[in-house]
Amino acid sequence: MLADLLTALLRANLSAGVAILAAGALRGPVRRAFGAQAAYALWLIPALAAAAALAPPAAAPSLADPVLLQTGAAAGRAIRRGLDTQADLSALLAALWLAGAAFALAVLVRRQVRFLDGLGRLHAVGAGLYRAERPDVGPAVVGALRPRIVTPADFEARFTPPERDVILAHEARHLAVGDARINALAAALQCAFWFNPLVHLATRLMRIDQELACDAAVVRRFPGARRLYAEVLLKAQLAAQPLPLGCHWPAAGQHPLKERIAMLKSPLPARGRRLAGAVLVAALSVGGACAAWAAATPAAGLIAAPVWLQRPTGKDIQRVWPKGAEGQPGRATMTCRVDGEGRLARCKVVSQFPEAGGFGQAVLDLAPWFRMADRDPDGASVQGREVRIPVRFSP
After folding, report:
1. What string of DSSP letters covers 28-41?
2. Is the pLDDT of residue 103 over 50?
3. Quick check: 60 pLDDT over 50?
4. Is the preceding omega at residue 139 within 30 degrees of 0, hence cis?
5. What is the spatial distance between Cα 389 and Cα 355, in angstroms, rounded to a whole number?
6. Which residues contact 177 (CB under 8 A, 6 or more apart)?
């Protein structure tokens, strides 16, 4: 079970890592050609690739028939000691991952609590709109399950009515498209994949593209307020407190203002080009997910000899010998699926001789004593594939 979990985690990280590099390389050209919303949507690709890598693989061709060799008791004990060592290593790695995820979650919660404490008492001033006690916090969308807009105490004094309109339109846009919940999901993935620097980089770039997409939506709504909007960006600087769960007008160190103001100077793409960008991103997302799923599917083709880590000993075979057939030879063949730990599952008898000798049930009883390496000699994964095992019962 632990080995399956670690294998799935590694597979998801590898798929997400490749997709993150692709999205990071495409975000600039896509933004220039199709708009900021299309660039923001590119970050669906890593999420879908990671999910696809965890999906059940397609059925693969059966492995070649292995020749069953009876092993002595001493060899059996050596194999079991090796398996115990592997289990200990899997448990250690799983404990390390859980400890890192718990620490990352504790840091995230601490940052969120510090930010919320810095707001002071909130005063409701409208539907979903709150005023903080301090003048140096916000405007921001705070929270994930029930996000709300929070403005600073000096909101009316610091900003003119037109400036307040674009600020509130910006935050309302975040609420409308669910950006706060997207950021919460990204924070959760950072905790789960705390060891992968590409996931942290992707979260930072995604939040930049999120703000750019929101900026573009507001400018489209207020086409004559580009200069005003740029001035508001310069005035509405958040203190250097991180906000993991929410959306905010961030400090220049976290979301470059230069990039946002440069976008305001560029013409917005026409509706047709935005639709083309949406189709392109959808195609890339589906293609990336399919590629990740295909990469996680076991490679086709038979192998000459499965790599067995454990097989039944002569004593194990003697233990399951059919009653009433003691001293009589027989044979049976079963097919089984291989799970993530190399164990056999869903075994079924395909042939036995003699037909009424009970050797079919005997070979099924031997299934728990088999264990295969997670890779074949060609390096392809055996998880989810079938193996055909003939067993000869010879007195």
Report:
1. HHHHHHH-HHHHHH
2. yes
3. no
4. yes
5. 17
6. none
The mean pLDDT value of the chain amounts to: 82
Q: What is the pTM of this model?
A: 0.69
Taking the C-alpha atoms of residue 314 and residue 316, their distance in angstroms, rounded to an integer, is 5
In the numeric block, the tokens 């090796």 are attached to: 82
The CA-atom distances, in angstroms, between 4 and each of 10, 281, 376 are: 10, 32, 17
What value does the mean pLDDT take over residues 234-253?
60
CATH class of 308-393: alpha beta
Strand 129-131's sheet: what is its strand order? Answer: 123-126, 129-131, 148-151, 140-142, 246-248
Q: According to DSSP H, which parts of 134-221 are helical? A: 155-158, 161-177, 179-192, 197-221
- Give buried/exposed letters for 40-67 (b at 16+ CB in 10 A, else e): bbbbbbbbbbbebbeeebeebeebeebe
Higher pLDDT pick, 313 / 193: 193
pLDDT at 72: 38
* 36 token code pair: 């900021």
Share of the chain above pLDDT 70, in %: 83
**pLDDT tier for residue 35 given thresholds of 50, 70 and 90:** very high
Range(s) of the chain covered by CATH 3.30.2420.10: 308-393
- Backbone phi, psi, residue 282, to 5°: -60, -40
3-state secondary structure of 60: coil
